[in-house]
Amino acid sequence: MDLDARHLRTAFGSFVTGVTIVTVGGPVPHAMTANSFTSVSLAPALLLVCVAKDASMHHRLETQEHLGISVLGEGHHREARWFADPTRPRGPAQFADVPTEIGPRTGVPLISAAIATFECRRREMYWGGDHSIVLAEVIDAASPHPDPSALVCLRGKLHRWSARSPVGLEEDSWAT
């Protein structure tokens, strides 16, 4: 039996995920929004992110040694949408209106005021259907702005999750 892609996407979207920005530096810095991110191991420190093989980030991850991950808080909905937009400018221009910092260990761009940031070294890329699973070694991690309200994705919409709320998940008016 073949699965209907629309129904499969809806089912996958029923799982709440955090929202991150994946970045690479180099001569042509680049970024993308990703919600397929997870920790893998503490020793060694490993994480993974999944990237569509037809995404412009995919080739950059194959050719760049280092990548950054910025975990977004509720105040980063504009950045999440911007880096998910395939029509945005490429290269340094895509960062023009986005506050970023340069990772001290790897030189990758990181989103300013992120809840947490990771500077990583790409270890492996594994086949995963129409995506690649990027396994990365964490070189440095920081939680400079531990905002208790995280940006999360549920059913294709952005929400905030607040540790202060008795239920936790609150949909904002800016979610579409």
From TrEMBL:
Q: Which InterPro entries match?
A: Flavin_Rdtase-like_dom, NADH-dep_flavin_reductase, Split_barrel_FMN-bd
The protein's matches in Gene3D superfamilies, at most eight in alphabetical order, are given as:
Electron Transport, Fmn-binding Protein, Chain A
Q: Any transmembrane segments, and where?
A: 12-28
Q: Which SMART domains match?
A: Flavin_Reduct (SM00903)
Q: Give the Pfam families listed for this entry.
A: Flavin_Reduct
The Flavin reductase like domain, residue ranges: 12-160
Keywords, A to Z, come to: Membrane, Oxidoreductase, Transmembrane, Transmembrane helix
- Official protein name in the record: Flavin reductase family protein
The organism is Myceligenerans salitolerans
Lineage of producing organism: Bacteria, Bacillati, Actinomycetota, Actinomycetes, Micrococcales
